[in-house]
């Protein structure tokens, strides 16, 4: 059995935020579970797969997953290392107000039509800011609630998130590529390496990945690395070492990529999230 830890970071009438960590010791599909409430789940470390009926989704730091109340699912860990996620539950009346009508059905309860959406770097930064600030008691309740609502709104926005549309075969191919990338974030992958592991030509891989995810494969990998940097900022005083550990060629390369994605340097984000003294 995989080991879990669940920490309540925020609990108000409007917003509940939990930090959920799983060691991933069990690599096979879990026993069937059932979501007690509707929530948005943001992986920020590691990777897992969620199985709903015959549909599978790779959960990693570029995604938000929708867990609908009373929906049955299973979890598996195809890659060692486990995973960690922020689980955000919003009061249903507020969530209904935030959710575009074409993304959910609202009969007896709000139910998201898709299992996941790809989020943008600003949403990733909000996930990290919420987690770091709440863990350190640096965010007041009103600030945390506001940031959570902003995160959900951004995760559902047509201009700030992406809903993949693809045949089952193409989606599975892209999912295999994601698992390859997630298996070693610091590795300097080549197209030939990934294509070989996935079992298609480099040209076909790049075409299909772009069509399904809406961004190039290399940029997808970069966002995974930067999301891992957001997670690790609290553990590093030497930011040059952090960049090198994640496969960046130099501190300047790491800092420039980070600032382009999140509009702040790593050091500036550390101060914003109260991870370093001003």
Question: How do the helices and strands line up, and which of them pair or pack?
Answer:
Layout: E1 4-11, E2 15-22, E3 33-34, E4 39-46, E5 48-52, E6 55-59, E7 63-67, E8 72-76, E9 83-90, H1 92-98, E10 104-106, E11 110-112, E12 116-119, H2 121-135, H3 141-156, E13 161-162, H4 168-182, H5 191-198, H6 202-213, H7 217-232, H8 239-245, H9 251-262, H10 266-272
Antiparallel strand pairs: 1-2, 2-9, 3-8, 4-7, 4-9, 5-6, 5-8, 7-12, 10-11, 12-13
Helix pairs in contact: 2-3, 2-7, 4-5, 4-6, 8-9
Order of helices and strands: EEEEEEEEEHEEEHHEHHHHHHH
Low-pLDDT runs of 5+ residues are none
Total of helices: 10
Q: What is the end-to-end distance?
A: 43 Å
**What spatial form do the alpha-carbon principal axes imply?**
globular
Quickly give the structural class: alpha+beta
User: Total number of β-strand segments?
Assistant: 13
Architecture overview:
- This protein is α+β, with helices and mostly antiparallel strands and 278 residues long.
- It contains ten helices and 13 strands.
- The strands form three sheets. It has a seven-stranded antiparallel β-sheet with strand order 1-2-9-4-7-12-13. The chain has a four-stranded antiparallel β-sheet with strand order 3-8-5-6. The protein has a two-stranded antiparallel ribbon with strand order 10-11.
- Helix 2 (121-135) packs antiparallel against helix 3 (141-156), helix 2 runs parallel beside helix 7 (217-232) and helix 4 packs across helix 5 (191-198).
- The mean pLDDT is 93.
């Amino acid at each position: 059995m995989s080991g879990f830890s669940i920490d309540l970071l925020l609990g108000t009438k409007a917003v509940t935020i939990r930090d959920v960590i799983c060691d991933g010791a069990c690599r096979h599909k879990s026993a069937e579970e059932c979501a007690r409430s509707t929530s948005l789940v943001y992986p920020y470390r590691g990777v897992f797969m969620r199985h709903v009926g015959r549909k599978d989704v790779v959960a990693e730091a570029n995604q938000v997953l929708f867990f609908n109340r009373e929906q049955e699912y299973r979890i598996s860990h195809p890659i060692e290392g486990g995973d960690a996620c922020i689980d955000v539950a919003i009061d249903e009346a507020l969530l209904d107000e935030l959710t575009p009508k074409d993304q959910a059905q609202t009969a007896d309860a709000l139910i998201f039509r898709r299992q996941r959406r790809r989020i943008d770097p600003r949403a990733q930064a909000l996930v990290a800011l919420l987690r770091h600030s709440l863990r350190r008691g640096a965010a007041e309740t009103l600030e945390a609630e506001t940031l959570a609502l902003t995160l959900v709104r951004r995760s559902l926005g047509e201009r700030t998130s992406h809903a993949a549309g693809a045949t089952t075969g193409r989606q599975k191919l892209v999912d295999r590529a994601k698992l390859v990338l997630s298996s070693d974030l610091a590795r300097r992958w080549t197209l030939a390496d990934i294509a070989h592991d996935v079992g298609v030509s480099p040209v076909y891989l790049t075409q299909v990945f772009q069509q399904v995810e809406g961004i190039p494969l290399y940029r997808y990998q970069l966002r995974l690395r930067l999301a891992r940097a957001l997670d690790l900022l609290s553990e590093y005083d030497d930011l040059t070492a952090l960049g090198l550990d994640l496969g960046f060629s130099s501190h300047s390369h790491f800092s420039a990529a980070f600032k382009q994605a999140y509009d702040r340097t790593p050091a500036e984000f550390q101060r914003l999230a109260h991870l370093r003294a001003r």
